[in-house]
Hints:
The first copy, chain A, is α/β, with parallel strands linked by helices. Chain A has helices at 12-21, 42-45, 84-89, 106-113, 120-123, 131-140, 149-163, 193-196, 210-221, 257-267, 317-331, and strands at 2-7, 27-33, 57-58, 70-73, 93-96, 127-128, 143-145, 172-178, 201-202, 228-234, 241-248, 274-276, 294-301, 306-313. The first copy, chain A, is built from 11 helices and 14 strands. In chain A, helix 3 links the parallel strand 4 and strand 5 (93-96). At the A-D interface, strand 8, strand 9, strand 10, strand 11 and strand 14 of A face strand 8, strand 9, strand 10, strand 11 and strand 14 of D.
Amino acid sequence: MIKVGIIGATGYTGIELLRLLTPRADVEICVITSRELQGVRVQDHFPNLRGHLDLPFSAPDSQQLNQCDVVFYATPHAVAMHTVPALLDSGVRVIDLSADFRIQDIALWEQWYKTSHSCPELVKDAVYGLPEVQREQIRQAALVAVPGCYPTAIQLGFIPLLEQGLVSSDRLIADAKSGVSGAGRKAVEDYLLCEATESIKAYGVSGHRHHPEICQGLNLVSESAVKLTFTPHLVPMVRGILATLYAPVKPGLSVTAKQLQSIFEDGYAGEPFVDVLPAGVLPATRDVKGSNKCEISVTYSTDTDTVVVLSAVDNLVKGASGQAVQNMNIMFGLQETTGLEGIALLP
Amino acid sequence: MIKVGIIGATGYTGIELLRLLTPRADVEICVITSRELQGVRVQDHFPNLRGHLDLPFSAPDSQQLNQCDVVFYATPHAVAMHTVPALLDSGVRVIDLSADFRIQDIALWEQWYKTSHSCPELVKDAVYGLPEVQREQIRQAALVAVPGCYPTAIQLGFIPLLEQGLVSSDRLIADAKSGVSGAGRKAVEDYLLCEATESIKAYGVSGHRHHPEICQGLNLVSESAVKLTFTPHLVPMVRGILATLYAPVKPGLSVTAKQLQSIFEDGYAGEPFVDVLPAGVLPATRDVKGSNKCEISVTYSTDTDTVVVLSAVDNLVKGASGQAVQNMNIMFGLQETTGLEGIALLP
Amino acid sequence: MIKVGIIGATGYTGIELLRLLTPRADVEICVITSRELQGVRVQDHFPNLRGHLDLPFSAPDSQQLNQCDVVFYATPHAVAMHTVPALLDSGVRVIDLSADFRIQDIALWEQWYKTSHSCPELVKDAVYGLPEVQREQIRQAALVAVPGCYPTAIQLGFIPLLEQGLVSSDRLIADAKSGVSGAGRKAVEDYLLCEATESIKAYGVSGHRHHPEICQGLNLVSESAVKLTFTPHLVPMVRGILATLYAPVKPGLSVTAKQLQSIFEDGYAGEPFVDVLPAGVLPATRDVKGSNKCEISVTYSTDTDTVVVLSAVDNLVKGASGQAVQNMNIMFGLQETTGLEGIALLP
Amino acid sequence: MIKVGIIGATGYTGIELLRLLTPRADVEICVITSRELQGVRVQDHFPNLRGHLDLPFSAPDSQQLNQCDVVFYATPHAVAMHTVPALLDSGVRVIDLSADFRIQDIALWEQWYKTSHSCPELVKDAVYGLPEVQREQIRQAALVAVPGCYPTAIQLGFIPLLEQGLVSSDRLIADAKSGVSGAGRKAVEDYLLCEATESIKAYGVSGHRHHPEICQGLNLVSESAVKLTFTPHLVPMVRGILATLYAPVKPGLSVTAKQLQSIFEDGYAGEPFVDVLPAGVLPATRDVKGSNKCEISVTYSTDTDTVVVLSAVDNLVKGASGQAVQNMNIMFGLQETTGLEGIALLP
């Protein structure tokens, strides 16, 4: 029985953690903290948990956290870093869904997140929790930084191409589309139904925090330095990210659609949560809604000698809480797919 | 291991059956039929099942059906009645999600469904599969008629009031709102996204097939004859039914909100899938999305001396496939909640 | 040329006023105030007005307001009452879209709006701006209180029945469904896309501010006192209200569907913005999206001897800004339909 | 008074033509044809037109078409070509919203539209109705081929870059996102609300009919041959296209964001329906919903030395019927903006 604590469980990634962990017989949710909701029963706040979870929210400084085997942070950025060191000292393992430990270059992190990092010395020991790349390191990790939603979809789409050295790494384009839940459960005018529905727009074109995270991850597998144009879009739906990725074939190389298909199928053979679709089948975000899968298709545009990859995830599952649980499973030596085999809700 | 067959599994109730049954260790899905898709792999047709179910669609007359312990019909109306008799003769138990065996008055059924019933003699032995009312009969049933989606939400809301004789049974109003999946997966212009989104309308005001089914069920528990105005509405969302029910308190009686709350809480005490909300809490359909729960609240309008009940279900789960599985669990002596404890997907 | 001022034009009713008034050759928009946006160009705040309106927001105390022929208040409740008296003293006519002058019973108003009224003496001279009832009074009014969105749809649906004395006025039910824009442009968690989409719920069942306003209006045309159960619902769409109204036929009276149809057609003959649909046709809110029409159908439920009326408006047009402009047209002796003949945007 | 006929007015572009033309005092809609709806009153079929248009649908071969000054075809592809020659012979001018006369290379057209062209000799005289490029030719045109929706948004976004020779024309990428109304009003399963809502997907990756049309148009203004990767996506909304365009700066050239902004502002100076947004402002499709505008922003990605253009239109207005009316205005010597100055409906 793994004793679990969750810090900041009132947002969408928090409730998704509860949906995934509550039914498990091998997990005991011991403590859930929330500054505002201290004392309130979790099931009174999240109506979908009525009858499933009988536990009140605790104060953020609950001593029960020290008794846990693992603590998840589902907090905004720049919160976890203040209390993670003490938890680690108590021997608790930590899975952080925020960005605090994702970026190895501290100065770069501080520039994008506009604050000083309070424990930069921990960052180098944090493991970036993308199991398809870091599975072995995750097993032993005391501190896992769960990748962001866009970075998950985009890295999984580009990695096989870069590993094979097939494409020019300095001309990558990621045109990504996200549902509104990616913005979290904040009362902000832009995300009101009346503002966000029945419309699509790009945002963050001049720079997005996930840009350095994506490049850091891709540089790990690329021979030459990665340069990326990243255009995030807001789509009028709740869940889902679709990343449409464009990579020009290296001058002098020639590829075929069949080769590309094999590279992806081979590259992800055995991966339980990366599903390379058969040639000619394209992913839709609804096919992964509520599931931990990343669906990928690859096509080749002869017109411009460009590889086009489509990569779809549920931003709250494989893009956040599902991936966090996948990391926990690996860290504790469980079957990696435990509790993550739910079928997407369709329609 | 229960051997299961599914007839007509290409619509929304069919895919929902597959979502609920595929993960179960105590159920073996042996045969899924479809006239159009014979030979196609199920997971190629339903992308959310990729990797979960390795089975092709069979022809509708598959002899494998006879080897099943139970066969579900997820067919349009007036289909099941043609082959159910032979299956029953082979000793297969049948759970019919269509309307063929719901209405005891054959003439009434034929009037609403505009065709002759091909096996009227079987109707009287069919059990109406609303477990909260018919649990004992369901245990032994060879043939279960799963209630319609509106009838489930509406009956569960009115029953405690009628059982107690608190309200005038001849002035009931059910103002019901349904998501578009209630119309099934038919390529009909009215249900195109561009026709159905961003709008609400009533329909079937002059008569709806669920009207006689609702009245039949309510008359079972009411001392005096039920008369009902039923107004269904189409809501721009995929899943969910919210029934807003109005029942005038009987002349001469007086009730309080507190009494009403107790009547519902007592009436549904121990029911695993009827959740009477605390006083002051109102249901939203999203709180039951993907779950088998019916959430109910009861309030009292002093202005007009009227009880107002709100009843919410997921039309594809408690209103169809989940309830069908609940019936199967009862019929085969399993824990009634097996495979039905999934938490609603929120947001 | 009518000189117009608009106070508080940053919400949805404000922008809708601008959409309706900007194209008019007979109206000059002289001043638009906003505390937060003072100095900002209106077209920079509302992208749909780019190129249509070259005017900055002014401070709320702009002296230009006194130079206007008419000033619209598109403010939250309990704001207009503080400055309306001075404007009226300056000879400016006022059209208030908020609730400040709608309720004649000051104590009742103060109970519902939870504040003291600052100019109760003005309320009795304010004209309730429902043109179908108060057209003559509106012509001469210095101060018009524009009806709320629910009250508009519900009153127009019940009025012909009550005028004819056909129904029991003490058992009325209004089951009303509204799009999310009815909640205004406030950054409130409940109205986030991720909270409000793909779900329907009732709210305000224990009491809603529009209840006394509706009853006040209906009592004007009813012989006997009106008692009403009013259940508002939140629907996952931007615009539109559909009110489903239930009124029991008076004991001893008998009616036919044909009579009811005639009563409504005769009652609204000549009304430019009330469209009684042909028998058998039911309204959908999308049919009035962006238009100033109220579409009404009437049917008779023989089962329970109840008249069922369906009444649809766009809550931001006939339910707010369009009706405000209709009032302005009447007050200034213009053709009542001027600038309000736009066709609903479909799909 | 311009006498107008509309052929095939039962789809979304047809009803949008009616919304735009019905209110005009300088246009008389004389005949609207529909094979299926012959004899039905238009306002009974399109509820938003009730009270606005009193005309029945005529048979497709109505002789009244010959009396018109101009006839619009709002028909599926490969319909107009059969009757356009006779209308032109009668002296009627024709504005075709379908693809029949868009592609000058007949073999290419026949390959994409999978049928023989019945009047190839007319194609070379047809004018491609993109006013920003072909305004002078449109004035005299007897036959105008209205551009497709994607081609309109994409050409307007790329043209200034290609005219200036700034970008490598052989590495263009158009990642385009469309609302569902782009698929027309066909009862097809894929476009059901339950299939298309709450999801995004790419389609037509292996080839889309608009690809040759876009390239033909861009080649007119490009020095060197255009090569384009075009990825259309289906977005869960009704109206709107957002095209995100990527063009690599030519090797050896250097550009700045300021230069790019000037190039677009100068390039579209005086264009009534192309709105180049200020630097830093990005378009959203809702800002042009119901309006004839194309909103464009341009940014420069230094990382990959790529120009990123965002171009937004309402696919049914500037992408179809609005542009058709704009062509009519030009052809008949009217003010180009007549009847097209409607403000977008927001929210």
